[in-house]
């Protein structure tokens, strides 16, 4: 199970790096000019905080896998992480008009959201 927790950490690391690409890949230099300065700031700040959370979560999974598996706090983190990915999967379909599922990137990230939902929950379910 510790290996699966490390895989969870790699999953978070991939999403941290993916979010680091948003400025270039989503053309934020030009696209964010279309919204108010307040919304520009909020969008970028939220993305920076998500990047931090993903890097931090990756660190926890890789260096504290035993604690995540065998403590109540660790189990709560695993459940919370699974719920995060379940919610993100649901949001993907809720905003399907804005994020067309036919686009290959959207298909891939949706699959990764579902994988995250499952891999964070498996260690918890095997312990209880």
UniProtKB/TrEMBL annotation:
Transmembrane region(s): 44-64, 76-95, 107-127
Keyword annotations: Membrane, Transmembrane, Transmembrane helix
Source organism of the structure: Chitinophaga flava
Domain of life the protein comes from: Bacteria
Name of the protein in its database record: Uncharacterized protein
